[in-house]
Design goal:
Length: about 140
């Protein structure tokens, strides 16, 4: 890539870096820590996150809902049944037992409603503890 890019956002997994160019919405990918870049088109993403376990997997948010790429960002497919999202983060820790129905956060706490249970994280989402169970229908 020649010239300059003003990145709207960047995400990385090891030496792999992906970013959205704020000028034209192009998705750019680097396999060498940002030394060289490949332009992958303009998938019209609002946010993106890259898997820390498999850098070929990228998820993004779009006007139509969350999308997923399994080919390093060359193509994206809608994630069936996923709720409409704006912001993403990918973390190998802090998993919940299922997709949360609702999330709330402060500077120190993240709360998630999953099924009939409220989970709480006091470490920025790295781990969750069930706090209230049996609240179905409330």
């Amino acid at each position: 890539m020649f010239g300059e890019a003003d990145f709207h956002l960047l995400a990385n997994s090891g030496d792999v870096v992906v970013g959205l160019n704020s000028h034209d919405g192009a998705l750019l990918r680097s396999e060498d820590g940002g030394m060289t870049w490949t332009e992958l088109g303009a998938p019209r993403l609002h946010d993106l996150a890259i898997s820390q376990m498999d850098s070929t997997v990228i998820v993004g948010t779009s006007e139509g809902g969350p999308v997923r790429s399994a080919d390093s960002g060359f193509t994206f497919q809608p994630i069936a049944g996923a709720p409409l999202l704006v912001l993403l983060a990918w973390s190998p820790r802090g998993s919940l037992p299922a997709q949360p129905g609702a999330l709330a956060a402060t500077k120190t706490t993240v709360a998630a409603s999953v099924g009939d249970t409220i989970y709480e994280s006091i470490d920025g989402g790295r781990s969750f503890t069930a706090r209230i169970a049996g609240i179905a229908g409330h």
